[in-house]
Amino acid sequence: MFYWDQTMILLIPAILLSLYAQYKISSSYKRYSKIRSQSGLTGAQVARGILNSNGLYDVRVEPIGGRLSDHYDPRTRIIRLSEDVYQGSSLSSIAVAAHETGHALQHASGYFPMQLRSSFVPVANIGSGAGPILIMVGLFMPTYGWLLELGIFAFAFAVLFQVITLPVEFNASSRALSLLQEGRMIGSDEVRGARSVLNAAALTYVAAALAAILQLVRFMLIARGRSDD
Catalytic site residues? Predict the structure, then answer.
């Protein structure tokens, strides 16, 4: 949310990290999307193979439009892979596919951080949607200054959601690398490339969490300054 004052300087580290994270995921994905995996398996085959080997025959794997739009939907138990990942047999494709399959395994095993994140989705959506609006009203209409604090409280749930997301994503990436190696889907000389793609993707979540935390701190400082006036 745009509101210019001296506290904007707090967001500079998050902005820089976000730019770097976007560069890393773009460059890493592009680099290893040009390198065909030695196994020759496509992202869809990797996902299906991992699911079957773990007894998750009822989890579907489907293609979806867009670039890097890959995700696992716990409500429908469907892994959706972008066309490049679904059909591709590059290191990038199979690394991303394995990562999303890692989420399916988390769901099946009752991985607590994932359960916690899922329970936070409703309040996080409200916080990210209503929070900034309430904060804006509180900032520009002093009569309704109490809305500023209410907005900050609501926005805090969106921030907490971003923080909870970190262990979920890190664990999915860790599982992905292990599953690819254990299933002999990548060779020892391909581990570095797969790890590079997974680490770059994880960095985007770190950047998002840092941005959310610093934005929350900024709002709190603004509210404190208003109360001191």
Answer: 100
